[in-house]
Structure formats: structure tokens, C-alpha cells
Description:
The protein is mainly alpha-helical. It has helices spanning 3-18, 21-49, 54-66, 68-82, 85-109, 116-127, 129-142, 148-177, 179-199, 233-262, 268-289, 298-312, 322-350, 356-368, 371-383, 388-410. Helix 10 (233-262) runs parallel beside helix 14 (356-368).
Amino acid sequence: MTVNDLLRGRTAGYRRVLSRRDFRLLWLGSSVSLVGDGMTFVALTWLVLSQPDGVRRLGLLTVCYTLPVFAGGLLSGPVLDRFDKRYVLAADSVIRGAAMASIPVMSALGEVPAALPFVVAAVYGLFKMVPLAGFPAAIPDLVPEEDLDVANALESLGFSLAGVAGPALGGLLIAGFGGEAVLAFDAVSFALFAAAALAVRRPLTPGAHDGTAAPGAREGAARPSGLRTLRDRALVATTLAFMAFNVATGMLLVAGPWLAATRLPGGPQTLGLLLAALAAGELAGAALAGTGAGRRRPVRAIAVVQLAAATGFLGLLAAPHLLGVAAGYLVIGMFSAPMTIWAQSLRMARIPAPLRGRGFALLRTLMQATPPLGAAIVTPLLAAGALAPPVLAMTLVAGVPALVLLAMTGRVRARSRPDDHTGVRREEI
Length: 429
């Protein structure tokens, strides 16, 4: 087999999934909106910094941007499970797009009220989990089971590309046109996502394609609870491992700027290089994960790549050598991307269709909650001036849960059973 044959084989799945019109529309709309999201926080930060006492107000902006996510995550799941996801995603885009547009409109009319950026940030945070849970919950209705890894890899690629392009593009537009213009672009990106969601032909209502009824559709039937997801040991174990890894990621969010400022040459440019290395690793990892390598034993595969990603944190010990630290970032990105993709495919297979909105919202909300904990833990360690203890803490927090997960899968009997609701054969732990 030649290299060209190998490359064609690896890309065939991507071409096949992108040939599906409804998935392609929703993915493109989501990706454009994510680029706008990447620009938004930069623009809001710049607007707040321009206010009197702006530095102190940044903490309040961050709280407004992140705290409502938890309430919104718990509320969005039942809505996604009860109504057609096309209309829920479109409504979310219209609401948040209008919030973003309010700032350039007020600027054109005269003056932006000092409180408006904080209100816009709160609205964004409250509805943030709708697409984060809604798009993955819709994927099983848009692609066949054998293409779930590829579809999830494409979603991850969209996140990674937006994470690089959004902030960079936002900074350029702010310099040339101001923060209000950036928010106007984000409003347009929300409108495009709404149009893409409404253009999807296939209904995205629970039970519309598998013959099962939507929650509450049968007279007298008890409505299932999203908390039932927490009775699945594989989902609970992988989610806990992810939460621990996100604690380590929260530590890295503080350690990276600290290294760039105190231990590495180059200052802000160095921080940009490290983030670019992380994003490049994520892109490479997502592309490889879409080939389906983790489909047969997903829990074990997740544990292996999480353990590999944990070793990347040790690269920080290479400071003051920039290439060694950048290599660590690359490893973290390369192996954390397959973690996300294979875990998402696992959730799609194990969460019953009528519960996907609530299941994804609940699990993703739990995982979103842990990075601030990591930031709080590592700050006093770095303030003491020592690098080794924080790096060891990051490595252990990320790696030990992977070892536990690996040990659990090592005790698995060679058996599987069909799920009561989806008919999917399960890997048991």
C-alpha cells in the first residue's frame, strides 16, 4: 500500500460524512459561529478595559461570562430533548446574536451603556451550553453509527480551528475597526448558524428516526430524567476522568502565561507559540481519531490517550528551553483531542435518544466546572516560584484517573450486552 492509498483511506470517512447535506450545513454553521465566539470575549474584554477602572472590572466580566453556564447547562438539556433541535439551535442563535448586536447598535446611536457588556456576557454564558449540547446530541440523527467518530472529529476540528482563528481575527479587527465591529461580526455569525439550522431538512426531534417516542409522548408514561445518565458506570468513569484532566488544563491556563512571563524568552509571542502548538496538536489528534481507532474498546482507548496526554505536562520542566515546552503542549493537544472524540462517540452510543440533550448538557456542564478549580490550585504553587511542584501536580491530576480507568477496563470480562434503549452493544466496566 502506498502513502497515497493510506491517505485516501484515512480521508474517505471525512468525505463521506461531509457529503451528507444536513450534517455539512449544521457543521459549517456551528464552525462559523465558533469563530465569532472566539472573537467575542476579546472584544468584550477590550471594551471593558476602555472603561474607567477597567482592569478591576475584568473579574466581573469573567464571572458574567462563565457563571451562568452552569444554570444554562441544566436548563438547556430538557429543552433540547422536548423540542426539535433545529428550532432550539436557531432560537439560541437569534437571542445571542441580538445580544451581541445591541452593543454596535447602541454605539451607532451614541454611547454604549457601561453595564451593557456585562449583560451581553451573561446572556452569552446562559445560552452557551445550547449548541455545546445540541450539536453533538443531533449528530447521531445525521450520520450512521459507523461514522460517529468521523463526525465527532470534525466537530473537534471546528473547535480547534475556531480557537486559533477567532481570537487572532478578533485582535486584528479590534485594531482596525474597534470592538463594536467585532461584535457585529459575531451577530452575523449567529444569524448564519440560525439559517443553517433551519435549512436542515431532517427533523431532529427525539425518537423521530428510531421509532421510540419522545419524552412524555406516550400517555401516562413517566418522563425519564437526565440524572439516569449517572447510573451508567462507563459514562460516570470517563466523565470523572475528564473532569480531573480539565483540572490539569485549568492549571495549564495559569502556568503557560507564567512561564512566558518569567521563565521563557519572548514574552507574549512565546505564549502565542505555545497556544499554537497546543492547537496544532489538537488538529492532528482530531484528524487521526476520526479513523475509528478507538471504536472497538472506547473506554480503554480513552484511558490510554489520556495517560499519554498527561505525560505532555512534563514538557513544562524543559523551561527555559522553548522547544521542549512547546513539544509538551503539542503532546497534550495531540492526545487530548482523541479523548474528546471517542468519549463523545461513547456517550452517543450509550445515552438513549430521548435523553441525549439532557445527558450531553449534564455531562458537559460538569466538565466545564473544573478548570477554574485547577487555576485556583496552581496559583499559590506558582507564586512560590517553584516549577516542579505545579508540573508534578498537573501530571498526577491528569494521569492518575487514566491509570484508574485503565485498571477498571483491565478487569472487564470478554462480554457485552445490548443497551435496553438503543440496541447498541456495550463495553462494560
